[in-house]
Amino acid sequence: MYELFKSPAFDNAVTQFDRACENLALDDWLRDRLRFPQRTLIVNCPVRMDNGKIRVFTGYRVQHNLTLGPGKGGVRYHPDVDMGEVAALAMGMSWKCGLAELPFGGAKGGVAVDPVNLSLSELERLTRRYTAEILPIIGPNKDIPAPDMGTNPQVMAWMMDTYSMTEGYTTPAVVTGKPVIIGGSLGREEATGYGVAYIVEDALRHFEKRIPGTRVAIQGFGNVGTYTARKLSEMGCSVVAVSDMQGGIYNASGLPVLKLLEIPRQRGRIQEFKEADKITNSELLTIECDILIPAAIGRVITKENGPKLRCKIVVEGANGPTTIDADDILEERGIPVIPDILANAGGLIVSYFEWVQGLQEYFWSRDIIFSELQKRMHNMFRKVSDYAKEKGVTLRMAALMLGINQVAQAKKIRGLYP
Question: What DSSP state is assigned to residue 117?
């Protein structure tokens, strides 16, 4: 079975899982059960393009484990999407849901496509066809998609509408991350980035460092990176470097975050900002700073650049940005890593709030959303840091052990059917 999912991302996820299991002493059958997805679906999505020609795109939906509840996980539109990557991300969602103690299982979806090359109408037709193909396995009590890299609230609106038209009635709770006007939650757009910022705040206090003046470098200035920068700037941190896909900028004295936020809103590029030095994405990772936040794609911190990092703490805003080899190098160097399943759980938590609001048809204020998000993020950090100290393991290992054990014990208690 392993050959079906083999990829760098899945190899990384399984190695992390196996290492955590060694510390947990799980039964062999539980290890075997949780190492691979519970259900996978590969779909072909024929789409009529604006020029009249038909292109066929490959899509995926992977449900890693549904023991704790319906599947929960984003839908990614990116050229490099494949089964291995989606399966790895779905596995990570299982542990993230377990760590956050939410009633969800881990799932993930994706289509191998570069959405930048599609018109709005082509993107809509692709989304509706993909939704129609995965329709048998999604639903408010089955599997609830959300935005991820390359998708956004509009894509979720199309997914919700496609599902609702098939069901014959409006079903807001089938997806999260949709526009507020059709049942989305206030605060969902900011949730992941704000959650990362709350974790940075906790990490600085945990390691007895001052928050004001803390120098932060952020790789990735999309949804996660922009809201992380905004919140950290409000907290008094100095954002010294940011980047997008084309490259980044650096100013040792700090960047004007509010001005920078206007650039992606106007579909511009970060390097259009002239009042800072231009740097590459690779150079950003080795900038001297207090906090390094990889908030773009996976596997950017590697054994090649791990020895060159000049940060004091790594906070993973992206999913899987640090390889196993780099993890070991950073541990040897004494650089703590706040793992993705803890650091970027804010989006998942507010997605849970949105799902609950959709089922109840009762909606909360922005103040309540952020208050509850901050409380849950702080509680998660405290739980992980206390467990790491108790077991004598890294923060990543502690988070994995807590998340995996939550799923494993639930599976054990539920037993086997038939």
Answer: G
